[in-house]
């Protein structure tokens, strides 16, 4: 038996420095480039937070205007990307659709680079690619939901900022300010969270000097899983299964007896509550009030208090964001694609950081397979 100390799931392992964000489970705080996330969510448009993550500082008025102008230039769904989306079966998971669209955008952008040695790009090119992806994703996500509902593409509106335009392209209606504000807050809360599984995936891919799009496509694959981004979708399935606050007790009896994980609870880093939850819960409360849905509040509160008192495990961001996205009108299957549109800012900030001080990420493993053995009949060359 080896004495190697295996860190299964890399739990508790610090792999590198980052200046993008700081998670402090002791004080239950999350800072983006030094700013508490709840302060950013309360005061900033998502575009300003994207600028902060990429460049390290909140934008001046001129910088914000420039980023917004650039974002508007790349909002419309590219016709070839639309064709690619339409090749994805309607009953495929929308995460596969977004992954495919980003993959095509990357292949086209990198066409002509000739060699893998040219594909990685320089920091300026990669920042420009990050902004284009950030701008292009809402149309991809919005059109995906619309085509599954048998609805036509809605063209972007130049008079709307990022969050309002995202909702416009999804629903084809001018969104209410309360809804835009709650959605904007959710995008900021989802934007970044240090070395989570998808961000780490993006950094691993970048560490081989591969290109930004390959890193984002790989990150989308990691985010799809229900232990990570897929949890916001899974939370809504649970809400639908339970149906009414009065069913929480019996539902939990059965779920816990069958050792089922209750999605939207627990976190690898936070053990006493996810720092993003109070801000998202407040945004959910505004939506509950706006849509007149006290039943959602009752189910939320009942499941939270019952699960926390039985297991001592607290909700994570996906617990309030799942019902919030449902109230806004997103289909359950669209929740994790919306998460992509937010997290692409954090992923690309980490890709830029990894590329700027790269070391190939290549851990070790402890072998526990069969002892050395030999192929029958093999004779070594003389
Ligand atoms: N429901 C039931 N039991 C749970 C849950 C849960 N949601 N979370 C943790 N536990 C139990 C788990 O069964 C285990 O019990 P035991 O020691 O008796 O086997 C113990 O708590 C430790 O759990 P773990 O899964 O080994 O711990 P981890 O640090 O690997 O877990 C987690 C982190 C997020 C994978 C886990 O809490 C989980 O599966 N939660 C549900 C999925 C979810 O909501 N994911 C979103 C995470 S936050 C957003 C994001 O990053 O995308």
UniProtKB/TrEMBL annotation:
Which reactions fall under this protein's catalytic activity? oxaloacetate + acetyl-CoA + H2O = citrate + CoA + H(+)
Q: In which pathway does it act?
A: Carbohydrate metabolism; tricarboxylic acid cycle
Q: Which Gene3D superfamilies match?
A: Citrate Synthase, domain 1, Cytochrome P450-Terp, domain 2
Domain of life assignment:
Bacteria
Provide a Gene Ontology MF annotation, just one: citrate synthase activity
The answer, when asked if Nucleotide-binding is one of the entry's keywords, is no
**Keyword annotations of the record:** Acyltransferase, Transferase, Tricarboxylic acid cycle
Which Pfam families would you find in this protein's record?
Answer: Citrate_synt
Q: Does the keyword Methyltransferase apply?
A: no
The record's section on InterPro entries has:
2-MeCitrate/Citrate_synth_II, Citrate_synth-like_lrg_a-sub, Citrate_synth-like_sm_a-sub, Citrate_synthase, Citrate_synthase_AS, Citrate_synthase_bac-typ, Citrate_synthase_sf
- What family classification does the UniProt entry report for this protein? Belongs to the citrate synthase family.
The name this protein goes by in its record: Citrate synthase
């Amino acid at each position: 038996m080896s004495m190697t100390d295996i860190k299964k799931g890399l739990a508790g392992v610090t792999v590198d420095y980052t200046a993008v964000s700081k998670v402090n489970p002791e004080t239950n705080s999350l800072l983006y480039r030094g700013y508490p996330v709840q302060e950013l969510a309360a005061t900033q448009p998502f575009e300003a937070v994207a600028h902060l993550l990429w460049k390290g500082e909140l934008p001046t008025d001129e910088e914000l205007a420039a980023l917004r102008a650039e974002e508007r230039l790349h909002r419309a769904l590219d016709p070839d990307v639309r064709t690619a989306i339409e090749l994805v079966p309607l009953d495929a998971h929308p995460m596969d659709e977004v992954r495919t669209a980003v993959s095509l955008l990357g292949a086209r952008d990198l066409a002509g680079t000739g060699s893998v040695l040219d594909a990685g790009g320089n920091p300026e090119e990669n920042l420009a690619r990050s902004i284009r992806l950030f701008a292009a994703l809402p149309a991809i996500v919005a059109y995906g939901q619309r085509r599954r509902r048998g609805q036509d593409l809605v063209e972007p509106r130049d008079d709307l900022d990022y969050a309002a335009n995202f909702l416009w392209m999804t629903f084809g209606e001018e969104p209410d300010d309360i809804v835009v504000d709650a959605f904007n807050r959710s995008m900021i809360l989802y934007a970044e969270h240090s070395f989570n599984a998808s961000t780490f995936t993006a950094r691993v891919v970048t560490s081989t000097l591969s290109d930004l799009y390959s890193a984002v496509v790989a990150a989308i694959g990691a985010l799809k899983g229900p232990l990570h981004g897929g949890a916001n979708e899974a939370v809504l399935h649970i809400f639908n299964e339970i149906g009414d606050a009065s069913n929480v007790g019996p539902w939990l009896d059965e779920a816990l007896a069958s050792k089922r994980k209750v999605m939207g609870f627990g976190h690898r880093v936070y053990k006493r509550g996810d720092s993003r939850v109070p801000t998202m819960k407040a945004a959910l409360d505004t939506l509950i009030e706006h849509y007149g849905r006290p039943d959602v509040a009752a189910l939320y509160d009942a499941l939270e208090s019952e699960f926390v008192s039985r297991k001592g495990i607290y909700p994570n961001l996906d617990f309030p964001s799942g019902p919030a996205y449902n109230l806004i009108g997103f289909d359950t299957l669209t929740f994790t694609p919306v998460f992509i549109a937010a997290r692409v800012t954090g992923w690309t900030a980490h890709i830029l950081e990894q590329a700027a001080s790269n070391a190939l990420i290549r851990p070790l493993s402890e072998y526990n397979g069969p002892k050395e053995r030999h192929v029958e009949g093999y004779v070594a060359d003389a």
